[in-house]
Structures are given as C-alpha cells and as structure tokens.
Specification:
Blueprint (H helix, E strand, L loop, with lengths): L1 E15 L6 E3 L21 E2 L2 E2 H9 L4 E4 L23 E3 L4 E3 L5 H11 L2 E6 L6 H12 L5 H8 L10 E4 L12 H14 L9 E4 L7 H10 L7 E8 L16 H28 L6 E9 L18 H16 L4 E7 L9 E4 L2 E4 L1 H9 L6 E7 L3 E3 L2 E2 L1 E7 L5 E7 L6 E6 L6 E8 L17 E3 L1 E4 L2 E6 L3 E8 L1
Parallel strand pairs: 1-21, 2-5, 2-13, 5-8, 8-9, 9-10, 10-11, 11-12, 12-13
Antiparallel strand pairs: 1-16, 3-4, 6-7, 14-15, 16-19, 17-18, 19-20, 20-26, 21-25, 22-23, 22-26, 24-25
Bound molecules: alpha-L-arabinofuranose (AHR).
The site of alpha-L-arabinofuranose has 10 residues, from loops.
Amino acid sequence: MKELTLTLNPRDKRSRINKEIYSNFSEHLGRCIYDGIYVGEDSDIPNIEGFRKDVVEAFRAIKLPVLRWPGGCFADEYYWRDGVGEKSTRTKVVNNWGHIVEDNSFGTHEFLRFCELVGCEPYISGNVGSGTVKELKDWVEYITFDGVSPMCELRRKNGRERPWKLKYLGIGNESWGCGGNMTPEYYCDQYKQYATFCREYSGNKLFKIACGPNAFDYNWTEVCMKRITPANMDGLSLHYYTVPTCNWDHKGSSTDFDTDEYYSTLRVTLQMETLITRHSEIMNRYDPEKKVGLIVDEWGCWYDVEPDTNPSFLYQLNTMRDAIVAAINLNIFNSHSDRVYMANIAQAVNVLQAVMLTEGARTVKTPTYHVFDLYTKHMDGTLIYSHVENENASDGVPAISQSASINENGDIIVTAANCSLENGYTLNIRGAENITSAECRILTGEVHSLNSFDSPENVTIKPLEAECSGGTVSVTLPACSVAEIVLKR
Ligand code: AHR
C-alpha cells in the first residue's frame, strides 16, 4: 500500500466554514418540485401536508441549511402571484423547461412550509428578466411585512397571519444568459433599482445576492464590484458546472464512461479552484474586508440526460464519480471559506447531480447525498491548515483532495477523497496534538457503482478503521473513496 503524509496545524486557524456551503437548489424543472418534493396531500406516497416524507427526513438528516427556489432560468419567468391563494383557482402557465403545464400548486406558501419542515433557510431567487420592480417589491412585502398593506391583507386572506422571515434574496438569475441576456453594465443598473425597493420590514434582514458571473467571465465580476459596490450587496453569485467533455452538445453519459473520461471530469471540476481564486482576487480589490460573500449557487455535474427521458427534464444518474466530484468541490469551498459564503448544488431531487432520486413511492439517496452526510461536521467549524505530500492520480489530478476544520470542542475534522482509480493510500495524519481516538467513516465503491431503486443501499457509508500511535493517525483509503476522519482530544 502506498503511503502519503497529511500534515495538519490546528493552531493555524483560518476562516469560518459557514454551514451555508452545504446548501441545495430546487427549480421547477423536470421532476424536482413535482414528484421529487411535492406530491400533494391526496397522494398515496407518504407525505406531510403534500411534501414527501422521505425527502423531508433525508434533508433533515444532512442538516440542509438553505434551499434556493424557484430557479434557475424558471425564476426569471415566475410570477409569484400565480402561485398563491386557493389551489383550484391558481393560474396554469407554461413552464419553458419542456413547455409543460405548471399548475402552480407549489408556490410561496408551500416552499416556505417545506423549508420549515426541513429546518432550512429559504433562498428566493427574484424575477428580474421578465418581471417588474413592483412585483419583486410586493413579493418581499407579502412574505415579510407584519402590518397593514395590500400585500399583508392578501397573505392573511390566503391563510397566513404571521409573516415569515426571509434572509436570502437573489436579484435575478443568470442575467447574462437565460435571465435576460444583459450586459454587466445594464444588469448593475437593474440590480440597484430592484434592490432599492426590496425593503426590510418588521425586523426582517435581507441578504441581497447579485447575479454574478458565468464561470470564467471575470469582466462580469469586475463590473459588478465596481458599479454595484460592496455597500449595496451582500453576495455575488457564481455558476459553474462540470461538463466532462467540455462540449455542451455531447456532455457524456452519467453512467457509461471510461477511465479517461473519469479523469477529464475531475480536471474540469478542479477548475473551480482557479475560478474561485481569480474571482476572489477581483473581489478583494474592491472589498478587502470580504464583506461580500461569493455564492456558488449552481454547481455540479451536468451530463447527457438518461436515454428515453424528456431531454428538458435534465434527469441523470449518479455514481461514485459524482461522489468524488462533490468531495473535491466541497473541499475547495471549505478551503476558500474566507470568501465562499454559500454554495448550492444543482439540484435537490431528480435533476442534474441530485442528492436524491425518486420513482413513485421509491427514493434513493445518491452517492452525492452520502458525501454531504460525511461533510456535515465541518458546518460552522473553523478551517485549519492542512497539506498532503501528494502525487498525481492522472495528469493535473492530485490523488488526494482534502480539507480540515476544528470545532468548538477541539475535535478536528478531516475530509479526504482518494481520486485515484488505481491506487489505495495509507494516509498518515500528523500535526494534531493530544489525539486520543479517531472516529472515521468511508464511502467507496467501483467508480460506476450507484444506488438504484432495486438496490438503494449499494453505495453507503461504512465505518473506517484508524490506527493512532505516537501522535500519528493512519487510515487507509481505497481507490475511489471519500472519508470523514474525526480526531478526538
Ligand atoms: O440548473 C439548470 C439550469 O442551469 C438553471 O435553470 C440555470 O440557472 C442554469 O443555466
């Protein structure tokens, strides 16, 4: 077995790892909301007020911090008033993801209730592309104002006396693309106008998120930082997807890939490191105090859709390759938590790199779900120095991806992925003093392995043995694995 050294320095404390880094994204797209989250109260599928019980429980189990909604591209065509009031009278509209009927039975009240059941914060993405300033202003008032106004009256008439709290508000989605094909200069003016009228009512504090760049568009970041200025926004978004072939017309299959395509998927994923570094460098010039959070509110693998499924529904399967991609991204976000405030994987259920898949009453937790489970202990911890004397698994792909944090009890949490398909490694962890024991868990399997509806427990988390001797903790990571290592004092 090959050996590698992982050095920690718990005294070298860095940034707080906001729990929001472990957030998710849900869009009215394909079967994410309907089927995936909401089945209606009359469904035979076990539900709480129409929300799938299995999905609520699964999200609670990984302590989902924030859920973004209603899109995505859908958000810039969403008229919130279509989705409130008596369900039978709600307007049916066309959803441009497949030109299917959107009956609006899942709207504002349903989304906010789902968040209450899960115990997460809502993040609402407002319509800038085809909406109006007044519509967004009214939506915020409807949700958060506890007083006398037409929007409060409407909310009360619709059955909700007390307002909700709403922290995260996105002002537009992909305004450089599906959200209006705007120039950054035009978008900044739009942002300022919309943001001005999104008021803070009844003690509610808004965290306003400006639409940030598409992947490598550094000019977009520069213009937003210069024109909006840090004083007028709390967050700036970044969208970057892992497309294994870098070809949007032939992205590659989610399950049928060879070793070369596996490593090219990881190379494309590792670009996230460069992206965050370079966007942060621009942000640092305008915001050295790091007041504005980078919000990676869409990330994950995007493959060709599953054969024989609606091409607009973006349904794909999820293997151990996705688990490794998730682990790499989450380690990158942790390592940049001085600037990365939130990240939302795309998407929650049945779409893209979903953490859960559903088929009728059946659900599977994907390998990606289990990675989120393995990383929960980083939430609200403090990033500490960690370094691996690495070797490459393939050109440009280090064998081990890792991050480490310390919690308020002094426990050290290390998450490490072995990205190699060829080699297992014994990781000798040094530098943490007074460790009395180590509790470890691992997710591993052949890279194509997945959880199917017939075999939902094929890839699951198992205990991992650790050896503690003379100040070194040693764990063995088989090829293609992700581990959580908790060092106890
Ligand atoms: O997540 C799918 C789509 O990807 C979103 O609607 C959009 O914002 C992005 O282009």
